[in-house]
């Protein structure tokens, strides 16, 4: 598929157990290996949603890194580790590669439990430089003269994170032997934004610098060993043209020796410049250009759509099942008689939230939207296109997003910050100082609240309730179904105070009812019960209703349990009058949430019951206990955690019958 003659070239990946084995391969064989890796990435995409375009773009870089350094000893940190797939193939995980992002299989991010070559579980952008610097300093203190090299690979999108410059400033002062590889593909998930991206484009595009740089690269390529005289000439000449043409370099002002830009798909050139970077006793930033989606034309043409696309058939025939894999989905070539008709697709909570925000923007010129490089994930493209003057993508800068929103709110705007729960954690201090303390009207649309499925523990949004509840002035809401979403945004618009609305990465069902009007701090009774009540925080309302119906049946001869259901709607302020009424009447109460039990919704109910001096012996909380949840399909994880109808039924019957 990628121009490789399989008749004369023996496949390497199936036999590769360690990257040290790459040393025996010629340059031609390494280039063929790059094609192999791209084919495996396409085979994987053939069957499931995976991070795709970013991995296609770093294949040659990954090969060059592993043939220049020995990362069983040296240190390698991948920033925003969704671009880790080629690295996993080169480090002995080919035979498990088809399990990527499946429950019990390989994680879609680095995972130290999988391999010694995965040092950190990196899932958020911007932390690679600081982590690599810490490793560098620690190794110098411990290893002494037995030198290790530290390498951080960071994308141009992640480079906009403020924490990167804190780390670079520190590294420049310490003068450690640290190599930062800037993988510049002109993208984060969506196209990068801001003045820094313009600066990188000027480096890429300046015609005079590009011509001189190419001549210098040719000189270096012909030089077997970078000696001191060549190095000195190279450094002085580049500094001169950079100072003359570009007005000085940002990275060199921070104390880094800047090398580049160079072609990130040329393995031989990458190896040579990586060796050069390794030879310097000071921080080095190696600037490379890559193409996101390289080798697969649809991803090259639309890398945003192919960041983590739904599975799509690439090959005419399904790829062979690997020897130790039993969980690969069946090929679409199976007979139609064995396939159930597809169920109607429900719109996701994300889409309902987007529609509600769009409606507010149409009717209220004060409303504006801020996202942190997640325009596509938050389905905000229609808002961006219709209201460009009121749409702000700040890049991967979540802390800045909140500070920026505070400024907009102080000026009289009504900003909606649309952000994933897991990334909102990065702005904790700003939520406190700039939003809560100032009591500013900022609406947080918290997407991916709860379990994020195959993205795993770095992306599960299970902590937001616990860290938002303590903040004074905040209102915290959780829609139970599609009918709750727009009314919650309408209420948030009217409140003129900090508001958080959290919703999961899931389809939004509709519970048939006549919804109660959305009023601040008021829950909603879905059905009454004589024996007890289930109070639901968020999207388990349908599950709770079905459990109540099941409990109404005499399943084990002990008798029926007549259970009611409450849609809490609000985590803060809590409707204590309604929610605590079952305990006041001697009935049982079960809370149900997709979040951590510690400091979560159930804890809020327990605290309220204690404050009211009620007997809490018949109160039970269902949620996520004190541990990190691994990756897997959301339905699988919910079952493992007991967040399902079966567990509700079991809990209620245990309270009733012991």
Task: Quote the average pLDDT.
Answer: 83
End-to-end distance, in Å? Answer: 63 Å
- CATH architectural label of the largest domain: 3-Layer(aba) Sandwich
- Going by CATH, the homologous superfamily of the largest domain would be Thiamin diphosphate (ThDP)-binding fold, Pyr/PP domains
Strand order of the largest sheet: 7-6-8-9-11-10-15
Any idea what the radius of gyration is?
A: 27 Å
> Can you tell me the CATH topology of the largest domain?
Rossmann fold
Shape: globular
Notes on the structure:
The chain is α/β, with parallel strands linked by helices and 658 residues long. It folds into three domains: 203 residues, Thiamin diphosphate (ThDP)-binding fold, Pyr/PP domains (Rossmann fold), CATH 3.40.50; 154 residues, Rossmann fold (3-Layer(aba) Sandwich); 134 residues, Rossmann fold. 39% of the residues lie in helices and 14% in strands. The strands form three sheets. Strands 7-6-8-9-11-10-15 form a seven-stranded mixed sheet, sandwiched between helices. A five-stranded parallel sheet has the order 1-2-3-5-4, with helices on both faces. Helix 20 packs across helix 25. The longest helix has 19 residues. The chain starts with 26 loop residues before the first helix and ends with a helix. The N terminus is likely disordered.
